[in-house]
Amino acid sequence: GKVVIATHNAGKLVEMRELLAPFGVEAVSAGELGLPEPDETGTMFAENAAIKAIAAAEASGLPAFADDSGLCVDALDGAPGLFSARWAGPNKDFTGAMARIEAELSKRGATDRRAHFISALVLAWPDGHTELFEGRVFGDLVAPRGNLGFGYDPMFQPEGMDRTFGEISSEEKHGVDWQSGEALSHRARAFVTLAAACLRRPA
Ligand code: ITT
C-alpha cells in the first residue's frame, strides 16, 4: 500500500518516514505530491491533525498520516502548545521561539521548568474515516544545547536523561523497540499506539 505523510515540516517528515518504514508501506510526502497546506483552525492537537490528514486523503485519494504536535510548558499554562510552530514565525526562527519561552518564564518569575511534548497522529482514509493515536514525553526545559533534531529539541531534556533532544541521535530520540513497545519521543510513542491498534508488530 501507499500512504501520504501530510506534513510540510522537513524534520517531522524524516522522523515519520523512519517510523513508518517498519510497517512496510510506501510513503510519499505532501510536498512531493504538491498538496496544499490547509489552515490549522482547530483548538486541539487532534483537531488540527485531522484537518491536515483529511485534506491530504481527499486530495490524493490515498490514506494519509498527519502529526500535530507541540511543546507545552507547565508554568506557561501549556503555551506555546498548539502555537508551537507559530511562535517561530514565518522564518521558522526556533532560536527566537526558545528565547521567548525563557522571556515569558522570567516575566512570570517562574521556577517550574517542567514541560512536555505532545503528538497527535491522525490516519485519514479517502472515505473520510479517521483514527487518532497520541504520544507524550515529559521533561524539563534547559538552556538550549545541541543542534540535532529540529524545533524546540535543544531546550528539552527528557526525564531521567542528562542530554537534550538536540544532543541525542535520531535513533535515541525516536527509535522504537517494537518488541517491548518502548520509545522515547512523543511522536515515536504515537506510532507505538498505532502499531498496537494494528494488533501486530511491524517486521
Ligand atoms: P506541519 O503542520 O506541516 O506538519 P508544522 O511545523 O506546522 O508542520 P505543527 O503545526 O504540528 O507542525 O507544529 C508543531 C511544532 O512543534 C513544530 O514546528 C516544532 O517546532 C514543534 N515540535 C513538534 N515536535 C517536535 C519535536 O519532536 N522536536 C522539536 N520540536 C517539535
Provide a short characterization of the protein structure:
The protein is α/β, with parallel strands linked by helices and 203 residues long. The chain is 29% helix and 24% strand. Bound molecules: inosine 5'-triphosphate.
Write the layout of secondary structure elements.
Elements: E1 2-5, H1 10-20, E2 26-29, H2 45-60, E3 64-73, H3 94-107, E4 114-124, E5 130-141, E6 156-158, H4 170-174, E7 176-177, E8 182-183, H5 186-197
Parallel strand pairs: 1-2, 1-3
Antiparallel strand pairs: 3-4, 4-5, 5-6, 7-8
The CATH class is Alpha Beta
Low-confidence stretches are none
* Helix share bin: 25-40%
CATH topology name, in short, is Maf protein
Major sheet size, sense and barrel closure: 6 strands, mixed
What's the alpha carbon Rg, rounded to whole Å?
Answer: 17 Å
DSSP strand (E) fraction? 15-25%
Q: Helix count, per DSSP? A: 5
Kindly state the mean pLDDT as a whole number?
A: 96
Subunit structure: Homodimer.
Binding site for Mg(2+): 39, 68
Active site: 68
Organism: Methylorubrum suomiense
